[in-house]
Every structure is written in structure tokens, then in C-alpha cells.
Amino acid sequence: MSWLPLSFGFPVVLWGLLALPVIWWLLRLTPPKPQAEIFPPLKILARVFKKEEMPHQSPWWLTLLRLLMAALVVLALAEPIFNPREKLSTSEAALAMVIDNGWTSAPDWSLRVATAERLIKDAEVNEAPILLAFTAEKPNTQIGPYSAREARERLNAIKPRPVPTDRPAVYARVANTLKELPGATIAILTDGLAAKDDQTSFATLLGQNPRNVVWVQPTRLDTIALASADNEVDRFTITAVRAPSNPAPAYLTAGVFDDKARRIGDAAITFRPGEARATGEIIVPFELRNDFSWIALDGQGHAGAMRVLDENAKRRRVGLLSQTPVDQSRLLLSPLYYIKRALEPFADMVEPASPDLIEAVPDLLAQKPAVIVMGDVGTLPESVRAPLIKWMDEGGTLVRFASSRLITAGNDPDLLPVSLRLGERLLGGSLSWTEPQPVAQFPSTGPFADLPAPSEVTVSRQVLAEPTPDLVDKTWAVLADGTPLVTADRRGKGMVVLFHIAPQATWSNLPISGSFVEMLRRIVQLSRNQGASGARAESPVATLAPYRMIGADGYLAPPDGDTKPLQVGGGHVPAITLDNPPGMYGSEEGVFAHNLLESDAVLDPLQRPQISVPVMSERYALDESRDMKAPLLAVAAALLFVDGLIVLWLGGMFNRRRRATQAATAAMVALIVASSLLMFMPVASAQDSKPGDIQAIDAISKTRIAYVLTGEASIDAISRAGITGLTKFLVEKTALEPGEPAGVDIAKDELAFYPLIYWPIDPAAPMPSEAAIARIDEYMKEGGTVLFDTRDQFANGIGTDSASPATERLRDILGNLNVPPLEPVPADHVLTKAFFILPEFPGRFNGSPLWVEASLDAENTDNRPVRTGDGVTPIMITANDLAGAWAIDENGDPMLPTVPSDPMQRVYALRAGVNIIMYMLTGNYKSDQVHVPALLERLGQ
User: Fold this and answer.
1) In what order do the strands lie in the sheet with 294-297?
2) Does domain 95-221+605-624 have CATH number 3.40.50.300?
3) 27, 95, 185, 577: least CB-packed within 10 angstroms?
């Protein structure tokens, strides 16, 4: 029986409510206990003219109280449940729960545990044995049967794993155990994503004739994961995937970190409604791109939200090809000599075993190089042209040099970036009127744009390009007379590059210059890797030790004792397993990136299998039902106690002046009755309440620290997590217990409720309106303080001539405020001793001073007054990213690393936050310490 939002375990007991009228009649009929009076004759005579009769029935309000008490007892015996849920119909045979605890389960793992506990609680009523299996554990893990207590202990001991689920093996094991427990109930708690061989797995599990099936899956598939990260020619592209069934748009940010955990780039990724794959781009110089170590999606707390990078995203494999045999006595004239010397520091070079092009080109292509350099190759045989062109279309970079063979080979539009004139151009010499040409400034549209022009380089011979309208767009380097020195053109995903000179120092001295090394380095870095060097079929098998692992929560962590070394190479592509979870394998000298998802990964929704047995569909949720039996009995007992006190009072035990206090007692009883009834009645708003009253009461009921909502989701999330971490630290270390952090819109919300407002400055956030800045100005005038944090310590400091974008934005904001003179916190300032003794105020970064309002006569340290009277500074400015250091996740762990990575720096940052809050709340009470020496001197001590 269910009366929403209340249900009863024994609704038949409610028939007892029909006895309330009988109880009313009996209570009204039964007179109260007679009142005992002492026999004072004079007192009787004094009342002889008063007409007073003893009541013949109980007072109405006492009768109502007793009826309410009886009704509460009847309701309690009916075992009411507030906000009831539908119970699982389980058999006494067994309950088999199969739970997905793979990488997608981490964000809502607490909901999955709560759902499983509800199922265990329902099975406990029938004392049914429980099988408990997890699809991301090892196949030999114990699965039961367990008792309800053992099942709860096992459930609480399991955590999400950063690996895919293995449903076939786990389902087969559960099905084999169910052969001995026919007629069981099977509960399948899925992650909602399809996997390989799902249909076969479900057929195996459900083939044991279960009594019924409980199917639990997420309400929505909001999981977003990283599928690939490509270091392309002029940008870094990040691809994220999600389930195609998600109709809502999604906006998120991917942060890029270097090997010291410093965030050095961001990419915005936008999913349109129903879109399953989206990309983001980071356009930065390739030198900075080579510092990328891993990528993480903000707000996605699972292993698929992180992707690690290795040398395959940086160092390239280069194939060298020449038709000239190597003469050890004339190495300097070898076409590949200077090329090898230039590429050695930053590329892995491979050469074919045979100089024959028919064998050499396939040999090089089989090794999947990123770049193939042809030193003196002219015409290519037809049998190898098509594979070479296909290799370029798939991302390969072909680099060619001019030679006598190339001149006589003729034009090849597929393997040359431009059309060439017949013959060659000779500059200088006895038969030429021209002098050798120097190299001009590199064009701004090419990859050499930021390199200085090599003034010492001259060219005496070259092959010329046919003038075409697009020749300028294909030219990367030119001579002083405007003729091309280096040209290039795209070929599918790859490109072909031509040096219009020979690779030896015979046509030009460019090959023996430092500029040649840098030019080749730029070209190699612009190329795309064609395969992991450790996984090539030709490479030997290597065993790499675990270095840094991706945890289930999407953070890098040291490997645990269960992680085993990873074998790569020999054509073997290692899989993601519990023995080899995703992460970095190797050492500081070099790592192998073992990522969770492949570039073509898709997140397809899981389809519920079609079966003939009854299926109960559930959603992951907390158990919000509440047993009301105990509270109702407690209220009834309290009313019984009150009833006893009233009976004693009516009997004259407490006060003989019944007439004077009867009204007060009745009011008290009525208040108790009304309070009891309020437990079952919704709270109604007063007629004279105004919008925002409840928020105002919440804001002033506890001290709350506010932060400005910038409109950037990732920044606002860090601000809230940071103030949450500071609040927790304040509760642990001080007597202050602040409320939840408050995000405020400075253009709309009331600011006077908050003593401190933290404002992270971000140039991407919209500029506040003049009205909003005016509200901030008024807030500071009324005694509030704003803590501005530009978070750009490693860009530029506050007050420098060359300011970062964040500092420029702060200057624009402060230009509209009445800002007092500022100074770094002096050594004797109250902030340095408000709670902890602190010489500096670090955050996630260290080095930026904390700027506050300057004191009067600040330069005269001997005559410095008590810090700014009894008030506090209305403004503070830092660049150390305080919220980033304070920020904690839902497990209480730090969200962002400090720079440098020093655990004590985070502690000092939290102490700095405590000092700031204590200073805001108590003013300069500790500044009285400056008078201690003078007081002691006057006392003669």
C-alpha cells in the first residue's frame, strides 16, 4: 500500500484510526482527578459567594493531545516509509549482482554502491545468498556466495579501475556458479556502454533460467573521453568522443601539461547536439608543442579523460635514401653525409639494406618513417611510386634535394612541389655574369619565419622553378634575387619538400651551416609519426617498467605493486589490462605512452538484451526512503510525557493558582501539538516574504567566502574547489566553521553578505560592465575586501612594464575603481601574524608578493602607524593562484600540482588563506603586539 510520498509496511493497522472517535467520547466522559483542598474555614467563607463547579469532563485541548498521541502510535505501528521506493522482488534461491567497475564508473561510483546496497538490503529480507562479481577485476577474483554482511564488506572494498570491462570472462564465471543456484535473481549494474561480444556475454549469463532480472544503467551517458592527440604541421589537435545518443550540447576544456605538471595550454572542445566526436586545437610554436606530456579534460573524473604522450609525439623516424654508393675515403662528398650530421641530435634514422630503389623504397616504407629524405634520387620506378604517394597521402613527409639525376628526370607533379625548368642555373664562375646569391629573409608564411637569415650562406648553383600564380605560397626560402631556395606543397595529410640545391657543399655552403640543421629540424618536427617505434614488427621486444600510471580518477600517480612491466615491440600491440593499466612506461630518459582508447574509438550505448523473463529497470540513485516508525514513536512518547505533566498540574501539584496560569499552559500544549503536526506538513512561506529572503538568511547564518563567477566553467570550478579546500582547512585548524562557498554574479547578487570575495582574473572571461564594477567599488567602500588573483606568476609579475593578458585585464578593471595606494605586505603587517607566522603568501605558484593597501607614511618604518587603523585593506592582489593551491576534489585530494612540486608549498598556501580570512574577520587585533616593547619599557621590565 503506497500513498505518495508515504507508504506503510502494515497498512491494516491503519484501521485502528477508526477508534479515535471512541477514544474522544471516553475521554470527554471521564472526569479528571478531583482536586484535593486543605480545609481552611476562612478561605471557604471567603469564596462562599463565588459560584464554582468542578468540571465533569476533560478540557478539549487535553483530549485533542491524547487523540494525537493515539494517532501517532497507530501510524508508527503501520511502519510508514517516507519517500518509498519499489522493493526488489527476489527469490530465496540467490541474488547474483554483476557490476561494471571499469574506467567509466569512477565519476558516479558512490551512486552505484548505493544502488547495490539497496539490492543487498532487499535480498537480506529473504536471507538469500548473494553472488557479487565485478567486470573489471581479475577473472580469479572470489565472487561468493556471500551473506548480506559479507557482500556489503566486499562491495565497500572494491574501487573503480582505469581499464575496460571484461564482461565475457566474468559473466561466464557467474553463469557457471548459478548452475548450482537455479531460480536466482540476476542484477546487472552496467556502465551503459557497449563492449565487444556483449550479445554472447549476456546470452551466457542469462541462459541459466533466472527468476527475474534487474537491469540498472545510468540515466544519461555523459562520459566524454580523449581518443587521440595529433601534433600536426601547424597545430596540436585533440579529439574527444562521447555517446552519439546524447542530445545535449557540451562545452569543455582540455588542459595540456608538461612533464613538471605545469599547465601550458588549453583547447576548447564543443559537442553539438547528437555529435559523438569533436576536436579542439592548440596553435602554438612546435617547440612548445614538444613539451606536451599529457592532456586532461576538465571536469571529467575518469581515466579516459587523460591521454599521455611519448616520444612518438615528438621525436621522428627519418628514412634516408641515396643512389650513390658510400665511399669512405670521400665521405664529405656523400649526398647523405651532411643530412645525417644535421638529423642525428633529434631524429631516429633508418636506411635500406640495398641501394636499389625497387627494394629500398618498400624497405623504408615498411619501417613507417615520418620523413624520407632523398639525397640524389632522380626518377623512381613505377612499382614504388604508388606506395610512396600513398605514404605521403597518409601523412608522410618527403624531402628531396636537387642533383644531376633530378635535372634529367623531368617534372613529376606527384613527387615534386613545383614544376622545374630544364637545366640548372649557374651563379658565379668564368662563364657567368652573376655573383653567388645570398639567402634573403625567410617568408613570414613558412615554418622558417622566425629564423634569422643566414648571412654567411651563398648559393652558386640551383634548379629553378617555373613561375606559377601559387609559387609564392609554396616557397619557404628564397635567394636575394627572389628565386626559390626551398619549396613545399601538401600531399593529402603529408607534404613534399624540395631543396633547390644539392645536399653536398658543392652547390652551396648551406649544408655546412647551422641554418641547415635548424631547417631540417623544423621540417622533421612538422611531420607526422607513422607508427610507434616500440611496436614495429622489425624492432626487438622491449620490457619497460611502469613509470607513472593513470588512476581511475583521471590523475597521474606512481605505480602500485600490482602493475607489471610492459612488453612492446615485435609487432605486438599491448592491451590495457589490470597488469598493464594506462599510463607511462619507461623512465625519465624516455617513456612509452600506453593509452586507454584508440584513435577510432566510439562510445556506443549498451542495448538491453531481449529475454523472456521479467525485467525490472532501475536507475543509479541514492536510497532516499526514510523509516518514520522511530520518529513517530519518539513524538508519541514526548506527548505522553507532556500529558503526564498536565495531569499532575491539573491535580494541583505544581501551582495552586490554576486560574492565573491556565491560559499559559494551554498555549504551551497548543504549541507542542502544532510542532508535532509540522513534521507532516510542508513549510509554507509567509505572505509578506520577498524574493531572495531565504538566500539572504542562508548567506548571513554562517560566515561564507565568496568567489566571482567569471563565466568560464573550468575557472569557476577551480575557485569553488579552492574555497572548499580552504574552508575544510579552517575547520580543522581554527574555531571558525564557514559555510559553503558562494559563487556571486557581481552584476546581480548582493555582495554585502560576504567579508571576502575571491576574483580570479582571466582574459577570456567577459569584461564586467560599468554597473558591475560600480557595485564592487561600493562593496569595498562599505568595508568588504576583494582578492584579485591574476594567476600569471610565470608570465609577468604585477606592475611590470610587459604585462600578461590577465594583468592587462586587471588593470582595465582597476581603472574604473577607486583603488588606494598599494604596497607588498610589509614584514610587520597584521597579515603576517593573524594566525600563523608567515613571511610570504604563496599559492600554486610562488614568487608574487601579496599587494595590499599602503599604510600612511609607509616609507617611514620607524613611525609606521598601526596598520590602517581598525579597518582592513579593501583590495588584495596576487599572481600566485591561491585557489589552485587550495582546490581539492570530492575525495579531499589536491586537484592541481604546485609549481615547483613541493607539498609544503600547498601547506603554506593554506596557512596564507587562514591568515587572510582571520585578518578579514578580526581586523588588526594582533597589531597591538607592536606596542609590547613600549609597554615593557614603561613598566621598567
Assistant:
1) 263-271, 250-257, 294-297, 306-308
2) no
3) 577
pLDDT tier at 400, thresholds 50, 70, 90? very high
Q: What is the pLDDT of residue 569?
A: 67
Q: What percent of the chain has pLDDT over 70?
A: 77
Residue 246, beta-bridge partner list:
none
Which range among 660-664, 735-739, 800-804, 823-827 shows the weakest confidence by mean pLDDT? 660-664
H or E element that contains 516? helix 514-526
φ and ψ of 931, to 5 deg: -90, -5
Judge contact between 477 and 485, C-beta under 8 A.
yes
* Confidence (pLDDT) at 532: 44
Answer yes or no: same fold for 95-221+605-624 and 224-312: no
- For the chain, domain boundaries: 2-84+628-680, 95-221+605-624, 224-312, 325-529, 534-589, 695-931
How big is the chain, counted in residues? 941
pLDDT tens track for 539-577: 456 788 899 999 998 899 888 888 999 888 655 678 899
In DSSP terms, which residues pair with 165 in a beta bridge? none
Tens digits of per-residue pLDDT, 195-233?
A: 888 888 888 888 877 888 888 888 888 889 999 888 775
Q: Read out DSSP for 754-772?
A: -SEEEEE--TTSPPPPHHH
CATH dotted code for 695-931: 3.40.50.12140
Query: With respect to CATH, is domain 224-312 assigned 2.60.40?
Result: yes
Q: What are φ and ψ of residue 379, in 5° steps?
A: -85, 135
pLDDT at 799 over 70: no
- Please say whether the beta carbons of 149 and 244 come within 8 A: no
Least Cα distance to 399 among 489, 511, 530 occurs for 489
Q: Which residues pair with 915 in a beta bridge?
A: none
The answer to whether the predicted template modeling score (pTM) of the entire model surpasses 0.70 is: no
CB 268 within 8 A of CB 280: yes
pLDDT of 225: 93
Pairing of strands 371-374, 316-321: parallel
Pairing of strands 425-426, 583-587: unpaired
Question: What sign for the dihedral angle of Cα 546, 551, 557, 558?
Answer: negative
Distance CA 828, CA 666 (A): 63
pLDDT given for residue 686 in this prediction:
41
* DSSP code for 206: G
Mean pLDDT for the stretch of residues 631-640: 80
Backbone angles phi and psi of 147, in degrees to 5: -80, 170
Query: Selecting from 3.40.140.10, 3.40.50.300, 3.40.50.880, 1.10.630.10, what CATH number does the domain 325-529 have?
Result: 3.40.50.880
